User: Which sequence fits this backbone?
């Protein structure tokens, strides 16, 4: 699985724009758990203390927003591309 | 992102820390307070509701609480007056998963007493208090307040359910007070394990019972540094004074155009001197009659007088929020305030006359003033 990291979070991902994660993951939640293993600092920027995706963070799995799929239960596979982006808000 | 400028303060310089809805700024001047150098914006794009300078134990550490719309709220500190800031992961204010809380905003960062130089308190939304005992390296939730039996009945004000005021008993590390909108004031006598409401005499205009035990929408409380039993309270309707550490309150809206408002500051030496900026009403949160007036008392709120020299007195429909009025510790005292329209005003003569320090800033939500002091020992 390939995680694509937005610019503001790259310092928390070892200055990387892309992070490849290997392991057994059936859902986005599984994939994120693997991802936190290599980039633990990103977790609290993406998820709230309750473990929910922050309201102004969008995650796309293979081009589809997880808001229109199954959220953290959205299925992934070994070659999934997971893109993290800030939503259209703020300023 | 905008170009960031930095200031280079020297010992004895005055700093005015300005938090806005789109980042924070540092204003620096010598003791004359005539010319100001501006640093920032820091945390560009992020609301900064809380800033402070921690000068204890030889530190000159700036703290800021910034909220990213996407990535959440976090605290950061700078030991070089803003040139570099700590990573949010370094000093994390975060609810334990078991608490069910989710951090929305950092509202207040308050260094502890001189006797506890590594203690820092942090008030947040949803209303909760965090404490660090290691100079901000780690933080923990004050469970006694979070689990208070009243908490399910606290209601958010327009700014959210926020803990915005932290007042310490300087001589007793077990005693402190906090204020929450809209829950009122609470006091602990046992270091935070238990809390009791402290709102006797404070009106709740918006409730059927006008003088409930708790539920008041307290906007700001200030405490005299030299006579800490003396406090002033700006309520959502109501202006009060206490001479018994906040155990009871008396109405002192003597001669003000409105007893609605947010901002308050008390003189660093004289407990009888304080400043407020009255607003017309909760329905129209602007300065009355289009006149921007700071009101000052010199007699413990027996009377209030408008201080207007240098302030616009026509068409000035301004709003000054709860943390946007501050004083420095010099003699004469410098007074500073910021408006939601992005104007920063300063007075170097205790409010007698005012200068426009900056215009065109983003909406100002917090102002703090401090003097840079020479480190007495190495910072931790």
Assistant:
């Amino acid at each position: 699985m390939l995680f694509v990291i937005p610019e503001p979070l790259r310092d928390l991902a070892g200055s990387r724009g892309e992070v490849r994660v290997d392991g057994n993951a059936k859902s986005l939640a599984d994939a994120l758990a693997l991802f936190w293993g290599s980039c633990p600092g990103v977790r609290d920027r993406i998820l709230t203390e309750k473990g929910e995706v922050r309201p102004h963070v969008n995650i796309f799995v293979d081009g589809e927003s997880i808001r229109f799929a199954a959220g953290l239960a959205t299925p992934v596979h070994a070659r999934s591309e997971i893109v993290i982006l800030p939503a259209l808000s703020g300023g | 992102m905008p170009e960031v400028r930095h200031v280079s303060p020297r010992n004895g310089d005055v700093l005015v820390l300005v938090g806005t809805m789109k980042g924070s700024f540092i204003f620096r001047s010598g003791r004359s307070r005539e010319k100001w150098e501006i640093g920032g914006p820091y945390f560009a794009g992020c609301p900064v509701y809380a800033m402070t300078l921690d000068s204890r134990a030889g530190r000159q550490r700036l703290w800021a609480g910034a909220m990213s719309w996407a990535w959440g709220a976090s605290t950061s500190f700078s030991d070089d007056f803003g040139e570099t800031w700590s990573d949010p992961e370094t000093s994390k204010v975060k609810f334990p998963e078991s608490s069910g809380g989710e951090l929305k905003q950092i509202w207040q960062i308050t260094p502890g007493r001189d006797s506890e130089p590594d203690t820092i308190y942090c008030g947040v939304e949803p209303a909760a208090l965090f404490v660090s005992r290691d100079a901000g390296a780690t933080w923990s939730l004050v469970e006694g307040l979070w689990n208070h039996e009243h908490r399910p009945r606290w209601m958010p004000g327009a700014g959210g359910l926020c803990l915005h005021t932290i007042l310490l008993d300087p001589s007793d590390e077990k005693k402190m007070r906090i204020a929450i909108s809209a829950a009122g004031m609470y006091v602990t006598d046992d270091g935070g394990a238990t809390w009791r409401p402290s709102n006797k005499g404070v009106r709740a205009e918006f409730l059927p019972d006008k003088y409930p035990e708790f539920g008041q929408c307290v906007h700001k409380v200030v405490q005299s540094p030299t006579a800490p039993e003396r406090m002033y309270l700006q309520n959502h309707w109501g202006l009060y004074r206490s001479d018994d550490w906040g155990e009871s309150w008396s109405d002192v809206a003597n001669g003000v155009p409105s007893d609605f408002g947010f901002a308050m500051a008390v003189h660093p030496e004289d407990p009888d001197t304080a400043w407020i900026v009255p607003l017309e009403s909760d329905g129209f949160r602007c300065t009355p009659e289009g006149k921007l007036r700071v009101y000052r008392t010199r007699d413990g709120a027996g009377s209030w007088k408008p201080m207007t020299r240098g302030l616009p007195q026509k068409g000035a429909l301004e709003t000054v929020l709860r943390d946007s009025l501050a004083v420095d510790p010099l003699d004469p005292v410098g007074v500073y305030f910021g408006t939601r329209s992005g104007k920063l005003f300063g007075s170097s003569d205790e409010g007698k006359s005012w200068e426009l320090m900056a215009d065109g800033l983003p909406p100002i939500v917090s102002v703090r003033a401090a003097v840079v002091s020479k480190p007495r020992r190495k910072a931790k």
About this structure: Chain B is about 0% helix and 35% strand. Chain B touches chain A through 21 residues (CB under 8 Å). The longest strand of chain B covers residues 61-68. The radius of gyration of chain B is 19 Å.
